[in-house]
Amino acid sequence: MLAGYAHTRRSGSLVGADRDRNTLSVGYDYLLSKRTDLYTIAMSDKINTASRAASFGLGLRHKF
Fold this sequence. Notes:
Pfam families: Porin_4. The protein is mainly β and 64 residues long.
C-alpha cells in the first residue's frame, strides 16, 4: 500500500488571491514476478478557489 498527502499554501501571488491546495494519493503495487509488477494509483486534488478533481492511473512495469 502506498499513500501520500501534500498541503501547499501560496500567499501574495501576482495572479490573484491566496490559495490553498490539498492533494491526497493512494496506490497499490502488486508483484507479478521477480521483475514485473502491476500498479494503480488514485489522486484527489482540491484548490480552495476551484472544485475537487480526481484522477487515476494503472500501469505494468518490467525491469530489464
